[in-house]
Write a structure and sequence with these properties.
The structure is a homodimer. Chain A has 30 helices and 11 strands. By secondary structure, chain A is mainly α. Chain A folds into 3 domains: about 250 residues, Clc chloride channel (Orthogonal Bundle); about 240 residues, Clc chloride channel (Orthogonal Bundle), CATH 1.10.3080.10; about 160 residues, CBS-domain, CATH 3.10.580. Chain A has a 3-stranded mixed β-sheet with strand order 3-5-6. In chain A, strands 4-8-7 form a 3-stranded antiparallel β-sheet. A two-stranded antiparallel sheet of chain A has the order 1-2. In chain A, helix 3 packs parallel to helix 11 and helix 12 crosses helix 18. The radius of gyration of chain A is 31 Å and the shape is elongated. Chain A starts with a helix and ends in an 18-residue tail after the last helix. At the A-B interface, helix 10, helix 11, helix 19, helix 20 and helix 22 of A face helix 10, helix 11, helix 19, helix 20 and helix 22 of B. Strand 10 of chain A pairs antiparallel with strand 11 of chain B, so a sheet runs across the interface.
């Protein structure tokens, strides 16, 4: 009985904090990290704990309502900035890629007028140069920018920090690496990297720049809280998807379904706003480009495959070929995931161990291979005669090479011929997809060409996956899917002999099915497909296909991102506990590890030796009542203890809780000292120099600890512990003995506290009382009588807003 | 130290349950209810606790993977059923409303060819008859079906059950009441009621029918778990919105943003599927109706206000009038909320206290008033000459009365004239909105007519809100908003003198702004507006307007649903804790209420007197070690204790934990006994007859209790307690003294248990071991030596899947 302890004369310090409002570390601990030495596969555990101390909180309380408004306004302003930044980055990447690719194709076509061989070589060389630039940037400058980045961001939002993923250099590497790898014609896309780009921009904006961590102290304080940082990165992800596909709703749903681990509905509106800003920025930029300011860019680059001309109605018999598309998508998608697992493992275990040089060779080799296949295969293919065009139709055949559109003349002898394989293979991917999706071009592509393309491109996509360049899987997935979709479409047209069946629509369904079978996204993918094709009416069909392909894929393995997350050793906490946890108790989960606890007043030398002896991130603090009974008084974080040791301000000579010293110590510590910059490692115990005199001193931890971490009884089922940990986003839970009595039972009615009437009154009262209290505090300080008001009381106040 | 207790010879019973896996009541408790007598404003606390006992769990374990698949399949099948059911209900309501309204207008127009007065009277009478039928159904048959039902469903999904909201009679009342009130021309819509209808259908399907609670025991068990029921109702809500607006994505987002309190991303795909099924059902039904099978229905009724003809581009100067629309929307929306609060309070405190008769009079009076205004005002309005139509345009002017479309000839003298007020006022609301949204009809409506309509309809909407009929606020909101939107559009056209400004687009923005200002929905509203107008390009504009109107509205009051939820006394737990909680501790929240705890073996007479003495829904069970130290061993639910008392199976003569009896008692109790039907009240202590002999007996509670409810230390900040309670959806939290020591600290790494390798092995192992154990259990039972394996171990196993 705590009150009895006090009555029995336990030191009043504890009374102070038990009466005062306590710190709330609930969601705040959200992005906590692996707390011990379990650094698996190079995943490092950074420390994200955020401090907003007593002084900070007073400041806030005084600001009152104006501050709340200011706070909200700043958050929205940052959402705007993230939207604009991501939009501009997307525009820049797109314009660059389109220009490089356009220039490449124009040059090649010019040369092949004279010599196909010279054109071939030039094509290979340009691609090689672009891919080399990309892989060089990644290997030598920004290794964290390789791949799509989505698994890493997912991990970050789940509470794990992989070093370097949100650095400025990663952002730069991602942008320029994408331009090189996509412009260089590899079988990968720029969409995944754009998500990572958006997240980087958000994180960098949140911390106010890259090298200079203090752009403005006023701004910075908003994003010192871990939850705010997480929110920003979530906005950035949605912005990335919105920019990649020009799909604002899809972006929000992608962030919600695929990336985040914790979602608050308050955040949704802000995320949506960010996405919409991106859409506006991209739209404005495209309008500006239309007037010819962007070189080869024109209308292309941004994915909008408008198939509003596609079929609107569908008959019952068509559901069968559509189901077949779904099944193929599930099978090929699951196979893709499985193959990429093998390829990634092999790369990790053999190839990439040999250093950067091998990575560069590998990427260059794949580039040459891709160039040879995409140029060479269309050469081997015979040209087809142009279809008899209606006088009214706008279809032009053959088109001059180097111009966007269907029916490309490539290595064709006669005048009225086109090369269907070149139309999809020897082209930028966006144009190829546009051609595959195109409606009213029945029988443009022969089954043989499509099958050739499918096999070759699928192989290339598998091989390319995991090279050291920024790489998205959306566009390759759409390419693969639309190819077999169109194949099924051809068979359907031939079989049912109906006029209203459109091969382009089947290509779209194929794309959806492959993405569903590989990534296993559902709602967000559905909405993205609807938004990029600008055709709401296809929604039920897309959904049907996705349902089937996801179900088929789930039989074999997990989604691409999940598999990759696991391969990279990112220890995600899933939303559902594992089955085995049902048979375990909290105590069993802790194992036999001895708990290292700190006394309330700790000798510096002891603290140092405890910190050196292990890598734990948090330590229980145990005090004794005057009766000698032990009592757990809170949780001390390693990072906070390190700050205390480094600053030496709280040091005292006496081993007793010294009232005046610790109180002033708390005041003297600025809250920002406890907050760590996002992208550096924080201090280590080895960085701190302590003289032998210092080592003989003591620190009173009471003002700095978290007085009430969440606890569970030792024999609680681990499933329940897991739910507590995961849902509340905690970093530490104390396992304690079963209680001896129940002081009260809290039910819904106890939590229905009406604030209504007291709202404004409380506000007033509180701000004045705090001011009064503060005044008193100063007086007490001067008298050396103030004490024990814990620094952490004000912690995380921000987060409750 | 618990293990010490055991070593010290504490009875082995407790050891049994501390070793066995424990029950997980985490999310399961989700829809727990007000646990005490705090029945405010007639909100009753039903008990939703769900039991899946030991026997049930064994059954499940044996079924293994097949069962999991079956489980998933059944859930999807129910999603399909909900989609079909809600879709059909929506089609039925729409066809009925359209037919009643069409017949009404046709008849009236026929009569006014001869006499306007006779037509006027006929119009009033038909409306009166329809409204009377609606209000009669509601007052005499299904009182819970009044209003939109959204606040109630929101409460249900937050964990509060308002009696009757999910009954079969409510469903029937809602459907037929909607037809009467909407067909009768009142200023209300059928969209909110459709959400309620969807929820009712979902809930009824989940419990397998209305009166017969056991359609099939196999099916039923899936939806015994509270979480499954909640999921079904969530699906139903989304289906309702999808059916009302033919907006599947909007439906999902509405359920996510506005209605649910707990959201799992696994649920999202299922909810989306339900919405898509609705879309398909509605589409098929509409296709069938197009061939003339549905009377007056035709294409109308279902909201699709296609304004793809609207303006596509917008200049920078137009942002000003659009911002003005947003501000007007915020102001008028907030005013609407405020006025409805007064009206609702007045109704509740004065009018509706006088009984059903007054409610009927009231509705009839409002019906007559509405009829008089909507018929009379257009009569007073002078007709306008038809615009000079281009030869190519399809606009017909004047149209014959009784036909859908613009430019209605109503009480016009000359030939080439139309009555603009009649076009919007004397019409079904859907047609009126279509006319207001219509593009390329510049200056069809005069500012004077629009202003008249705005004032009159706004007043009618406020007055109608809260009458005892099913009533949605979407359509009235759209009407009001599009009116002033079009007004602003007129001024903009006049001021900027540009040709590409379209009044219809401004009407759409106005509609969005009013809904945003009143309901304060954001993403879902945005998506719904985009989906109903079928124009993705307006998204940024809609969002801009919504941002402004929501921000303006938030200055004044809360959203319509939140206000109404509070007025109805539905004690929602918000997702964020109240500010005052920061200054309170868990102990303070409990107040000075004495905790009533039960001993492990309780005398029946004592149990009865405890149950009679209070209304608590859960009791701590406290046992003593052999050393005499007390120990909290779990939580006993009132409902479970009542079941035990009623069945009398566990009764024993000895006051000691008797091993054989309770063990067999646990076995003899079927898990379904502990589950309560959704829509009845469960047993009360007064329903149980116990003889004086019974009262002298004892019950051993150990097998029936929840062995490890969540606990918090007494001085934890209430904010943290709130987060725990709310995020995990709990019903009871024990407040216990601060622990004396920490046995272990659980961090992320402790929860990263790999199931991968052991997965299949464990499955195998577990199913055999369970079977083995079961065999042993039987043997032990026979020997009378088995004991204490708690019945609740298997509880909620379902929910972990």
């Amino acid at each position: 009985m705590l009150s009895n302890h006090f009555e029995n004369g336990m030191d009043m310090a504890r009374l102070a904090w038990s009466r005062l409002p306590h710190s709330e570390d609930g969601e705040l601990d959200g992005v906590g990290l692996l707390s011990t030495s379990s650094n698996r596969n190079g995943v490092e555990s950074l420390d994200y704990e955020v401090i907003e101390n007593y002084a900070y909180r007073e400041e806030q309380a005084q600001r009152g309502k104006f501050f709340v408004g200011y706070n909200v306004a700043v958050k929205w302003f940052f959402a705007l900035l993230i939207g604009i930044g991501t939009g501009l980055a997307a525009v820049f990447i797109n314009i660059s890629v389109e220009n490089f690719a356009g220039w490449k194709f124009a040059l090649t076509f010019n040369i092949i007028q004279k010599s196909y061989l010279a054109g071939f070589l030039m094509y290979i060389l340009i691609n090689l140069a672009l891919v080399f630039s990309s892989v060089y940037i990644i290997t030598h400058f920004a290794p964290a920018a390789a791949g799509s980045g989505i698994p890493e961001i997912k991990g970050y939002l789940n509470g794990i920090d992989i070093p370097g993923i949100l650095l400025f250099r990663t952002l730069i590497g991602k942008i320029f690496g994408s331009i090189g790898s996509v412009g260089g014609g590899l079988a990968l896309g720029k969409e995944g990297p754009l998500v990572h780009t958006g997240a980087c921009i958000a994180s960098l904006l949140g911390q106010g720049g890259s090298t200079k961590y203090h752009l403005s102290s006023r701004w910075l304080q908003f994003f010192k809280s871990d939850r705010d940082r997480r929110d920003l990165v979530t906005c950035g992800c949605a912005a990335g998807v919105a920019a990649a596909f020009r799909a604002p709703v899809g972006g929000v749903l992608f962030a919600l379904e695929e990336v985040t681990s914790w979602w608050r509905s308050q955040l949704m509106w802000r995320v949506f706003f960010t996405s919409a800003v991106v859409a506006v920025v991209v739209r404005v930029a495209m309008g500006w480009c239309k007037s010819g300011n962007c070189g080869h860019f024109g209308g292309g680059g941004f994915i909008i495959w408008d198939i509003s001309d596609g079929q609107e109605d569908y008959s019952f018999e068509e559901l069968l070929p559509m189901a077949v598309i779904g099944i193929i998508g599930g099978l090929l998608g699951a196979l893709f995931n499985q193959l990429t697992i093998y390829v990634t493992r092999w790369r990790r275990n053999y190839l990439h161990k040999k250093g950067n040089r091998v990575k560069i060779y590998e990427a260059c080799l794949i580039s040459v291979l891709t160039s040879v296949i995409s140029f060479g295969l269309p050469l081997l293919r015979n040209c087809s005669p142009c279809p008899d065009s209606d006088p009214g139709s706008e279809i032009e055949c053959p088109r001059a090479p180097g111009v966007d559109g269907n029916y490309v003349n490539f290595y064709c002898g006669k005048d009225k011929e086109y090369n269907d394989l070149a139309t999809i293979f020897f082209n930028t991917q966006d144009d190829a997809i546009r051609n595959l999706f195109s409606a009213k071009t029945i029988h443009e592509f022969s089954a043989k060409s499509l099958l050739t393309f499918l096999v070759m491109f699928y192989t290339l996509a598998v091989v390319t996956f995991g090279t050291a360049v920024p790489a998205g899987q959306f566009v390759p997935g759409i390419m693969i899917g639309s190819t077999y979709g169109r194949l099924v479409g051809i068979f359907t047209v031939n079989h049912y002999k109906k006029l209203n069946i459109d091969e382009g629509t089947y290509a779209l369904l194929g794309a959806a099915s492959f993405l569903g079978g590989s990534m296993r996204m559902t709602v967000s993918l559905c909405v993205i497909m609807v938004e990029i094709t600008n055709n709401l009416k296809l929604l039920p069909l897309i959904m049907l296909v996705l349902l089937i392909s996801k179900a088929v894929g789930d039989v074999f393995n997990e989604g691409l991102y999940d598999e990759q997350t696991r391969l990279r050793g990112i220890p995600l906490l899933e939303s559902r506990p594992k089955y085995v946890m049902r048979k375990m108790t909290a105590r069993e989960a802790c194992g036999n590890q001895k708990v290292l606890s700190l006394p309330r007043v700790v000798k510096v030398a002891d603290a140092v030796s405890i910190l050196r002896s292990n890598k734990h991130n948090g330590f229980p603090v145990v005090d004794h009542t005057r009766d000698g009974e032990p009592l757990v008084i809170g949780l001390m974080l390693r990072s906070h203890l390190l700050v205390l040791l480094q600053s030496k301000i709280g040091f005292q000579h006496s081993p007793l809780p010294s009232h005046s010293r610790s109180g002033s110590g708390a005041i003297r510590h600025n809250f920002s000292e406890f907050a760590k910059p996002v992208s550096s490692k924080g201090i280590s115990i080895d960085d701190i120099y302590l003289s032998s005199e210092d080592l003989e001193m003591y620190i009173d931890l009471a003002p700095f600890l978290n007085p009430s971490p969440y606890v569970v009884p030792e024999d609680m089922s681990l499933t329940k512990v897991y739910n507590l940990f995961r849902q509340l986003g905690l970093r530490h839970i104390f396992v304690v003995p079963r209680a001896s009595r129940v002081i009260g039972v809290i039910t819904r009615k106890d939590l229905l506290i009406e604030e209504e009437s007291e709202d404004s009154a409380t506000m007033e009262l509180q701000s004045t009382s705090v001011r009064g209290q503060r005044h008193k505090t100063r007086l007490l300080e001067e008298n050396g009588a103030d004490a024990e008001r814990p620094l952490l009381n004000g912690l995380l106040v921000q987060n409750q807003r």
